[in-house]
Amino acid sequence: MSEQQQVTSFSSANDLPGFHRVLGYRQAAWEEGVAVIELTVEPHHLNLAGVIHGGVITSLLDIAMAEAGTYCPFAGRMRKAITLSLTTTFTGQCSGGLIRVTGTRRAGGSRIFNSSGEVRDQEGQLLAIGEGTFRLRSGSEKPEGVPL
């Protein structure tokens, strides 16, 4: 991340809308092509086996990977994306602590883009990787003079 990274106004779980608030993550960083979110794993994030639920991990990957392709450097403008496909591969598990999810835009055009992501625990252990294809929602097209 560059020193001039811009973080969205969703700096705490209380600032998030709808399902995002239920997850309870926070935006750690967001800049062109890369988004990072963090989650403190709580008991309501765990499955019956006492480890973080795969649906929580997949949801966080979906969010970070979509954000990686929707960053806009202009205050007050927000791009939104629809998930077209999403694949998650689970590689580890955890029962608590902080997890960090990084999404990176890999390729794409003016409306469709591809991103990859990874989830790591606070020790750096890889918990999951993801790949996704996203489409910018109508009204999220590249504004004149704005890089996408």
From TrEMBL:
Family: Belongs to the thioesterase PaaI family.
Xref: InterPro entries: ACOT13 (IPR039298), HotDog_dom_sf (IPR029069), PAAI_dom (IPR003736), Thioestr_dom (IPR006683)
Family matches, as NCBIfam families: unchar_dom_1
Lineage: Bacteria, Pseudomonadati, Pseudomonadota, Gammaproteobacteria, Oceanospirillales
Organism: Allohahella marinimesophila
Transmembrane segments: none
Residue runs in coiled coils: none
Domain Thioesterase: 50-127
SUPFAM superfamilies membership: Thioesterase/thiol ester dehydrase-isomerase
Name under which the protein is recorded: Thioesterase domain-containing protein
Keywords from the named record: Hydrolase
A Pfam family per the record: 4HBT
